[in-house]
Amino acid sequence: MPQPLTSGLLLQLDPAVFFSLGSKLALLGWAALVLSPYRVSWAARARWLAGRLIPLLLAVAYVLLFATNGMGDGGYDSMAAVQRLLAQPALLSAGWLHYLAFDLFVGSWIAERAGRLGLPHLVLLPLLALTFLFGPAGLLAFALLREVWRRRPAAGLREAA
Asked: Can you give the pTM of this predicted structure?
């Protein structure tokens, strides 16, 4: 039976440290998205930071937490198993990093697509806030808004010209 790794500097960090550092890193990514309208020169770099680099760093921390702590007596096969999994501080931090990485990745994707659609940055901001706070609700709001934006009369006139 494989044993979780138990030595090394990173592995001695408290799960709360992963939680805190991950949260701060994700906030940096969200700030980059909020402060980077699509047409500014640094937008591509900011979106790379927010949508690629930071989620990958969070993924590394997520994998480290699972590799060093295993699954304990938790799992994914029932609600009770997930509850036991998340009752362990290290795996709760891993779950948090999972949310942070995926929500930030989706927020970056929304920002990129919104920019290509010509959606004003001020319209994008509430979508980013919704995605930051409630993940899938922000994605749903963007999907609905994207369809409305594409069907507006001005879009049809531009496509015909």
From this structure: 0.85
